[in-house]
Amino acid sequence: MTVTHHVRVHRSEEELPREGQLAWKIAEVATDPVALDAAVVDMIINRVIDNAAVAAASLARGPIVAARAQALTHPVSTGGAGASIFGLDRERTSPEWAAWANGVAVRELDYHDTFLAAEYSHPGDNIPPILAVAQHVGADGAALARGIATGYEIQMDLVRAICLHRHKIDHVAHLGPSAAAGIGTMLGLGTEVIAQAVSQALHTTTATRQSRKGEISTWKAHAPAFAGKMAVEAVDRAMRGQTSPSPIYEGEDGVIAWLLDGPEATYEVPLPAPGEAKRAILDSYTKEHSAEYQAQAWIDLARKLHGEHPELADPANVERIVLHTSHHTHFVIGSGANDPQKYDPKASRETLDHSIPYIFAVALQDGGWHHVDSYTPERAGRPDTVALWHRVTTAEDPEWTRRYHSEDPDEKAFGGRVEIELANGETIVDEIAVADAHPLGARPFARPDYIRKFRTLAEPVLAPEEIDRFLALAERLPELTAEEVRELNFTALPGVIDLASAPKGLF
């Protein structure tokens, strides 16, 4: 059964034993040697494939080119064999820099898994740092799977309980601790060491949400990679006997008191009880479309409406479109954000992927969504698209907000109701609760869907035999030897990666 931990701020004169601190409780979960459920192992394999798919599709994109170039300037550290970088064959780098480069590749397209509760998260971001350390130290597939299960469990449990965005703190503040805990599980470290690493990782990864506001920059992809890199460094530091700010969550000058709900705040954080399997990954969900998760269901609804009402593609037929939806969708990616950039045809890809008015308009016109074509400047600037796009607004609906936050998986929803007023006076109304690919959706994702997604995204950049080799390895993940874990990477076709043309920096 799950144990709920009461977490509050403690004044400096109050004694809070380390065993009562949240960082220690997280570490206790990480050191619990409970076996993995078969369903959890199966989902871990799915997500390793999913991460590789979106990373392959990103190999030539600017943020990845830069991050990869940075990583390659750092030689393998003396403590291990180094870690591989997505797309490259023999090149190795120090594990924290592999976590950096591969973390950017995984996040760039915003196309991997998600979990939404009190906070937002992409728990697949745990995989690059944990895998990088596994390759460096020679961990086998079973240890890697245990580490990934812990990473998902800790991040998702924190996401269930502690809201960061309300205080304009970026969601990767939950990722640093989870990745550190996952690495600790994989390495078999003690509770004290993991607790210190968790504290350090949190301390160094709290940052503002400006990275996801206004004109969104390339840092959006780098932020989780930075958290993973810091987690690797935090574990290294803790293994050397160094301590960290404590209590990091509950301290008088800690994260809760000054960055979150304040000195009087309390949180109820659920964590697995001793001996309880780490099953959180089963509550996460991946993306069929390359866009913010709250856009997934709306793309599917737009695709449906495109088939049923093709006349909606012409803005001359549409008076206005209102998406009645949750608080988050309205205020973060909808018109409630009051970001003029969300209606700007010259906005960056990162901004457009956080604009539900743009996404719904394009999906309504095209009857689908493409991870590259739907974001091009030409597509965003098309006059009929701009006209339709500017007719789309969002509105918060209390019922959809309630369902968004519901803990009942059968009613939890990420969609809403659309009302389309036509120029002829008629109105079209439709709604959708969850994306088609969601476990409760019209076409839930299963292993064949993950494999198809990987093949679709990888075929332009990987040879067929390389695709088959990677998939064969990934599907045997818990059985892999240490040497096979080091091969859990893919090599791009000649010409896809041009190392000589990468931008230059300090390193």
From TrEMBL:
Keywords of the record: Lyase
Class of this enzyme: lyase
EC number: 4.2.1.79
Span of domain MmgE/PrpD C-terminal: 289-476
GO molecular function term, any single one: 2-methylcitrate dehydratase activity
Stored Pfam families: MmgE_PrpD_C, MmgE_PrpD_N
Ranges for domain MmgE/PrpD N-terminal: 21-266
SUPFAM superfamilies, alphabetized: 2-methylcitrate dehydratase PrpD
Catalytic activity entry: (2S,3S)-2-methylcitrate = 2-methyl-cis-aconitate + H2O
InterPro entries with a match to the protein in the record: MmgE/PrpD_sf (IPR036148), MmgE/PrpD_sf_1 (IPR042183), MmgE/PrpD_sf_2 (IPR042188), MmgE_PrpD (IPR005656), MmgE_PrpD_C (IPR045337), MmgE_PrpD_N (IPR045336)
Gene3D superfamilies noted in UniProt: 2-methylcitrate dehydratase PrpD
Self-association state and partner proteins as the record states: Monomer.
Family: Belongs to the PrpD family.
Protein name: 2-methylcitrate dehydratase
Organism of this sequence: Leucobacter edaphi
